[in-house]
């Protein structure tokens, strides 16, 4: 197995991505796209919502990703009766000392795996809002910083109807990406069967950390230095504007989405070993960046129009920049 020493502290984002992808592929089959976007979110201080029917390895994927990145993780199984204090923590009275002692909740970790987030009540869901946006938690007047790096990877089942609470717009907007985990095709499912026939206990314990928190922080700094040319910025702004003007959309993407778009495109360029963003970087992250942020008109919802369909239409309608490599790389770049 690999170990974190294989990726030095100053490794570039592409080396880190390749190490994460290679190690997770020992367990996961056909999940390259999800691992790519999870890596992008990690390198841009973002959060990810994984959606899929039961049994497609959403939680396993999140746990594997946390393990190979060398980060501490904690899983929260969300249910209708979970309380905000069960997530953030509370002050507990200690009879032996006669004082209240702070008991930190599971949110105080590097990677929070919020399993079945839509089964928690809105009040419990809101306990994650401050943590996701501000990287801090307020407990009874005290403001406590969360560990660095900090990332929430939440899962939800799209087909359950009873005992679930749809995420409010403010909550969804704090996820950089929403990724759909589809059922595998026949060849991938056969590969899964063969792997588990060879090792019925195959799971997150089969992989090792291949990255360190120091390497992640260094890679984040490298992502920040990626160049975004003016035509690319205008292209992103055009896509976001189109999401607000689409006739089937009541409320389009927010400025937070625009920033996530720019950061995500920079990170994708970096993990593919480029110092500048190209239109394909923007197109690649368009659906996971926008789809969960669109609030559809009632008629569109009743006609089974989906956010993914609308994003496809937007990408088809908005022309990418016809820029040359010279204009994309920027001054003094190659």
UniProtKB/TrEMBL annotation:
Among Pfam families, the record links this protein to:
AAA_3, AAA_lid_2
The protein's UniProt keywords, in alphabetical order, are: ATP-binding, Nucleotide-binding
Q: Where is the AAA+ ATPase domain?
A: 44-185
Q: GO MF terms on file? A: ATP binding; ATP hydrolysis activity
Q: Which InterPro entries match?
A: AAA+_ATPase, ATPase_AAA-3, CbbQ/NirQ/NorQ/GpvN, ChlI/MoxR_AAA_lid, P-loop_NTPase
> Gene3D superfamilies this protein is in?
Magnesium chelatase subunit I, C-Terminal domain, P-loop containing nucleotide triphosphate hydrolases
Spell out the PANTHER family in the cross-references.
MAGNESIUM-CHELATASE SUBUNIT CHLD, MOXR FAMILY PROTEIN
Q: What is this protein called?
A: MoxR-like ATPase
Source organism (scientific name): Halovivax ruber (strain DSM 18193 / JCM 13892 / XH-70)
